[in-house]
């Protein structure tokens, strides 16, 4: 059971590395849902394994245990902590699902801002806008321009 869980964990680690390159929204959603499902499944399986091992340890007679109880205690402890590890992984995958449902991770309505036709292009700074006060973006009259000799620049409104 531990070897299968380890292989499953390595497969999802590879999927997490590959996840940003998945362009399909449906495939991303399937990957996150599979992560949630398998993490919850392994958490449940480790719980069942812990209950089984603890029950077997309880009914075992001391005379039947010739090798000592260290290996059995280690297996019970490992399965106990694996429950919380896989449950935590399932919780983190659920948080990723909630984050994706609220953001552009699973959004199908995403539009590239550079391809957005509704946005008007920027006008140049020196362009002749009707709304700009000087008509051209630069100073309208250069007689009061700052030349560096008279102190402060005069502001003509």
Automatic annotation (TrEMBL):
Superkingdom, taxonomy of origin: Eukaryota
Region (Disordered): 112-157
Name listed for the protein in its UniProt record: Synaptogyrin-1
Pfam family, one: MARVEL
Keywords of this entry: Membrane, Signal, Transmembrane, Transmembrane helix
UniProt organism field: Larimichthys crocea (Large yellow croaker)
Membrane topology: Multi-pass membrane protein
Main location class: membrane
PROSITE patterns membership: MARVEL (PS51225)
Domain MARVEL span(s) in chain numbering: 1-98
Residues in the signal sequence: 1-24
InterPro entries named in the record: Marvel, Synaptogyrin
Cellular component per GO, a single term: synaptic vesicle membrane
Parts of the chain that traverse the membrane: 40-59, 71-88
UniProt record similarity statement: Belongs to the synaptogyrin family.
Taxonomy of the source species: Eukaryota, Metazoa, Chordata, Craniata, Vertebrata
PANTHER family for the chain: SYNAPTOGYRIN, SYNAPTOGYRIN-1
Subcellular localization, as worded in the UniProt entry: Membrane
């Amino acid at each position: 059971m531990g070897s299968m869980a380890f292989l499953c964990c390595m497969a999802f680690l590879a999927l997490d590395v590959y996840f940003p390159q998945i362009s399909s929204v449906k495939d991303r959603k399937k990957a996150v849902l599979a992560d949630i499902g398998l993490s919850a499944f392994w958490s449940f399986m480790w719980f069942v394994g812990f209950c089984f091992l603890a029950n077997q340890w309880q009914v075992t007679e001391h005379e039947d245990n010739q090798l000592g109880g260290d290996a059995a205690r280690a297996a019970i402890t490992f399965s106990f902590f694996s429950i919380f590890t896989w449950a935590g992984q399932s919780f983190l995958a659920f948080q990723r699902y909630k984050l994706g449902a609220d953001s552009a991770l699973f959004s199908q309505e995403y539009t590239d801002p550079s391809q957005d036709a509704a946005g008007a292009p920027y006008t140049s700074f020196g362009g002749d806008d009707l709304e700009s006060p000087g008509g051209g973006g630069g100073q309208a009259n250069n007689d009061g321009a700052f030349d560096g000799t008279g102190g402060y620049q005069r502001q003509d409104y």
